[in-house]
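Saturday, quiet lab. Running sequence design on the structure tokens for the scaffold JK sent over.
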């Protein structure tokens, strides 16, 4: 019985080493293949290094993923084709070593600024109306992020659902302007049930430990806007917006009236208005 056991063990080890050396032999052959050599040459030329998130005291600025060629997948596709072909290159992202995802205890005030994206953010109190804001954004074909109060979620469910149906982002602001842990968590559950998405961000207009601490426990990043717009929106943004800016716009009659002018101005400056989550994403467009 012992001999049989030893025999099985040696057989298993033999098969294991056979597979290992066979795989190594295949790798050596592949590395000498002209297609693979060309892939590796292009990889060295086209590779883009990841940019780490920047930590500065109580603040973190998101990083940006790198980009490289997946040699094996590219080779497999091109070998079937019979030659090197740019259109068959398979790209993969390389995540930053230091990422914003590791720092829920710090504030985010801006995107990484790598692209021309910016974010329009609207804090929504329980009594606010967002219909006109949404209509302007839709008409101008731009996306916005709405931080809504928990009571607004409960009383105006259909408006929230309409926002997400138009690809706008909805996050939780507070509950009746307060940050009670139980009520806040219940509102997060409501938000998830209405939008089928988990909340990702909290909103603070200044350094508020109360908000940061609560949101850290919920694994939510806390943002402080780059620019807070309470009145005279056009004059407030003129010349002050840069790549990655987060613009918080108070919902008032005057501000809504000037919103189309502000959007047109930002477009003329070459900015792309996207959701907060897209702005702060560290991912890179995989299509290169």
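Result came back. Writing it out in full:
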């Amino acid at each position: 019985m012992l001999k049989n056991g030893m025999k099985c063990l040696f057989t298993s080890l033999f098969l294991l080493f056979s597979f290992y050396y066979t795989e190594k032999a295949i790798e050596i052959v592949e590395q000498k293949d002209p297609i693979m050599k060309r892939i590796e040459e292009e990889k060295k030329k086209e590779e883009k290094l990841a940019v780490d998130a920047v930590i500065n005291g109580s603040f973190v600025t998101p990083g940006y993923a790198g980009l490289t060629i997946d040699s094996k997948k590219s080779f497999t596709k091109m070998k079937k084709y019979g030659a090197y072909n740019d259109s068959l290159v398979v790209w993969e992202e390389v995540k930053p070593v230091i990422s914003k995802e590791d720092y829920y205890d710090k504030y985010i005030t801006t995107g990484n600024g790598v692209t021309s994206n910016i974010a329009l953010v609207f804090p929504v109190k329980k009594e606010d109306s967002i219909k006109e804001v949404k209509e302007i954004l839709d008409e101008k074909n731009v996306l916005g992020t709405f931080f809504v109060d928990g009571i607004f979620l409960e009383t105006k469910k259909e408006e929230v659902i309409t926002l997400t149906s138009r690809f706008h982002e909805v996050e939780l602001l507070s509950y009746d302007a307060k940050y009670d842990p139980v009520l806040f968590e219940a509102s997060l559950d409501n938000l998830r049930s209405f939008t089928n998405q988990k909340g990702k961000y909290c909103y603070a207009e200044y350094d508020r430990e109360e908000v940061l601490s609560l949101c850290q426990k919920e694994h939510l990043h806390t943002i402080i806007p780059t620019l807070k717009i309470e009145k005279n929106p056009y004059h407030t943004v003129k010349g002050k917006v840069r790549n990655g800016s987060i613009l918080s716009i108070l919902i008032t009659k005057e501000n809504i009236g000037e919103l189309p002018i502000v959007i047109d101005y930002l477009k003329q400056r070459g900015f792309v208005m996207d959701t907060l989550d897209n702005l702060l994403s560290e991912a890179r467009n995989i299509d290169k």
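Notes for JK: The radius of gyration is 26 Å. Residues 12-26 have pLDDT under 50 and may be disordered. Ask whether to fix the surface positions before the next round.
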